[in-house]
Design brief:
By secondary structure, this protein is α+β, with helices and mostly antiparallel strands. The protein contains 4 helices and 4 strands.
């Protein structure tokens, strides 16, 4: 009988937590790189007129929401991220092992939330460095954690809108076995 003990992690919820951890690590490494490269230096044009790497500090939430609130928002958004992360951790844990799309989406969201939480707790703000713009129009500067949250949320919406019935059938069949 073959020894599959090395593969048990890939059939347990731990694989999704490892994905979240990878997002956190990538997010922190890229933020450290951005601080080193762009905090006191010029922006780096990736696609002139469209995409650049720069440095920004976000004291608020998405799109700098409540950035000027006086400091209490740091702890409020931190508490929200901790509570939300706890819910997502339990949600992932309770999903059937056959599911792939939903836990991937949740792991991306979890990793992004914890990546930004790391900044918020340690620094009091979130480090952003990816700037998308066209002419005078500028999208708010963002980071890898924000991208992970956005992609994960989009995946959840796609799951709920287009695949919920199919994934429910798959869960029922796996529960019958």
């Amino acid at each position: 009988m073959p020894n599959n003990s090395g593969h048990k992690i890939f059939s347990s919820p731990l694989r999704w937590y490892l994905l979240a951890l990878a997002i956190i690590v990538i997010d922190i490494v890229t933020k450290v790189w951005a601080v080193d490269q762009f905090m006191y230096g010029p922006a780096l044009q990736i696609i002139p007129g469209l995409l650049q790497f720069t440095y920004a500090e976000n004291y608020g939430a998405a799109f700098s929401f409540l950035a000027d609130a006086g400091g209490w928002q740091r702890w409020f958004f931190g508490a929200v991220a901790i509570g939300f992360s706890a819910v997502v951790i339990m949600w992932i844990w309770r999903l059937p092992a056959v599911k792939r799309w939903e836990p991937t989406a949740l792991a991306l969201i979890l990793g992004g939330a914890l990546g930004n939480l790391w900044d918020r707790i340690l620094l009091g703000y979130v480090r952003d460095f990816i700037s998308v713009y066209y002419g005078n129009w500028h999208f708010p500067v963002f980071n890898v954690a924000d991208m992970a949250i956005t992609v994960g949320a989009a995946m959840l919406v796609i799951e709920l809108l287009f695949f919920k019935d199919r994934s429910d059938e798959g869960s029922e069949k796996s529960a019958e076995v």
